[in-house]
UniProtKB/TrEMBL annotation:
It comes from Deinococcus phoenicis. Keywords: Kinase, Membrane, Phosphoprotein, Transferase, Transmembrane, Transmembrane helix, Two-component regulatory system. Pfam families: HAMP (PF00672), HATPase_c (PF02518), HisKA (PF00512). One of its GO terms (molecular function) is phosphorelay sensor kinase activity. PROSITE patterns: HAMP (PS50885), HIS_KIN (PS50109). Its EC number is 2.7.13.3. It is found in: Membrane. Residues 233-436 form the Histidine kinase domain. GO terms for cellular component: plasma membrane. The keyword Transmembrane helix applies. This is histidine kinase.
Length: 437
């Protein structure tokens, strides 16, 4: 036997809203009916009390004494449903006008009281004694009972109408959501990511919902198109080196060769494999820039110093001098990304720059000045795209991904990649937003 928490059946949002609307209407109807009943009861009772007070006022002018006892005047007339009594100080009735039931009233008390379906009003008399005016409450009770039945019937009718009205309101409120859900399901089923869901009219929450869904579809379309473009680009760029590798392998196997020829062929294959590995790593780095950024505090100077030390042997082998001019600088970025950006900028300076390269770190900035002429200014925007290379550099190894990766990383960090051409040479600066450290 399985034990666990009892699960309630799942209700649709439409039913939940209907029950919610109905509950509100029911509570309002019940509270309204109770309030009406209480107000009516109070008003009717007050009217009855006013009648008793007026009768008592008339009776007070028609009271006299006969043989030492209180008596009503002979010409005193009262309404048939009323009864009047005169009582001595001991509470004994000395005179009565009208008929009443045998009530257990006890000693009189000033003011109003209700005894056995009779409303009683007692007034103390000067010189002792009491005047008591009585009236049955059967008419009042009948009116209140009739009102209660009417209110109960009206409340039941309101419950039915509230359920119907709640369903209609819920259906009207959820219809735009149903349209958005059906459109989104159709887009997902057919893979038609270029289509959009209908925007609900007005400026309410449903409008914001449909607008947000369309914005998500816009982002999804951009991602899909980017992935398609990236896949085509990667396939195109990998086809050439793979074809070259296959051709060289076939050439080596075409006929027997001596050890020196095989060795030379393997060295060429090793160079091609190295270029292919660099291309694949560049493509992988570019693909990683699409992931959500995980920002943290990064110290630019320490990163730049570490990269410079790693690349210094390559600069020394190329006969170039690497200068460092750094200050402490903290930014919000990704440690591996900052290192990758510094490596790419320094490798570009190593390949295409002059004999002296300077790495400069200032608050919020990482600059690499290569001492060379740099690319043509009109070519700069194009070089920020993947696999784009400047004219006249075909003889230099490279994949055309270095600047593209740096530009993509800068966009992830809300940073800016700034080129500068001057008489001293070409400088690229990675500028971070102020206050990010």
């Amino acid at each position: 036997m399985k034990s666990g928490v009892l699960k309630l059946p799942a209700f649709s949002l439409r039913l939940k809203l209907t029950l919610g609307y109905a509950l509100v209407f029911i509570l309002a109807s019940v509270l309204g009916a109770v309030l009406i009943y209480l107000v009516a009861s109070t008003q009717l009772t007050r009217s009855l009390d006013t009648t008793l007070e007026e009768t008592a006022a008339v009776a007070l002018g028609n009271i006299g004494r006969e043989d030492g006892a209180l008596r009503f005047a002979a010409d005193l007339n009262v309404r048939s449903e009323l009864a009047l009594e005169l009582l001595n100080g001991q509470g004994q009735v000395t005179a009565q006008v009208g008929e009443k039931e045998d009530l257990k009233l006890g000693l009189p008390q000033a003011g109003f009281q209700t005894v056995q379906d009779w409303r009683v009003y007692s007034v103390p008399l000067e010189g002792g004694g009491w005047l008591r005016v009585l009236r049955p409450t059967d008419l009042l009770s009948g009116l209140l009972e009739t009102l209660a039945r009417v209110l109960v019937g009206a409340a039941l009718l309101m419950i039915v109408l509230s359920c119907l009205g709640g369903y209609l309101l819920a259906d009207r409120a959820l219809k735009p959501i149903d349209q958005v859900a059906l459109a989104a399901a159709s887009i997902a089923r057919r893979g038609a990511y270029r289509e959009r869901v209908p925007v609900a009219p007005g400026g309410d929450e449903l409008t914001r919902l449909s607008t947000t869904v369309n914005a998500m579809l816009d982002r999804l379309e951009g991602t899909i198109e980017h992935e398609k473009s990236f896949t085509r680009m990667a396939a195109h760029e990998l086809r050439t080196p793979l074809t070259t590798l296959a051709g060289r392998v076939e050439l080596l196997l075409d006929r027997p060769r001596d050890v020196a020829a095989y060795r030379a062929g393997l060295v060429q294959l090793q160079e091609r494999i190295g270029a292919l590995r660099a291309l694949s790593e560049g493509l992988l780095s570019l693909a990683r820039t699409d992931a959500p950024p995980l920002l943290e505090r990064v110290e630019l100077a320490g990163t730049a110093l570490g990269v410079a030390e790693d690349l210094r042997p390559e600069f020394r082998a190329a006969g170039k001098i690497l200068y460092l001019d750094v200050e402490e600088s903290w930014v919000q970025a990704e440690p591996e990304g900052v290192r990758q950006a510094a490596v790419n900028l320094l490798q570009n300076a190593l390949k295409y720059g002059g004999p002296q390269v300077t790495v400069r770190v200032r608050p919020g900035e990482l600059s690499v000045a290569d001492g060379g002429p740099g690319p043509r200014q009109e070519d700069w925007p194009r070089l920020l795209h993947p696999l784009e290379r400047g004219p006249g550099v075909q003889g230099i190894s490279g994949s055309g991904l270095g600047l593209a990766v740096v530009a993509a990383l800068a966009r992830r960090w809300q940073a800016e990649l700034r080129p500068e051409w001057s008489e001293r040479g070409f400088t690229v600066t990675l500028h971070f937003p102020e206050g990010t450290g």
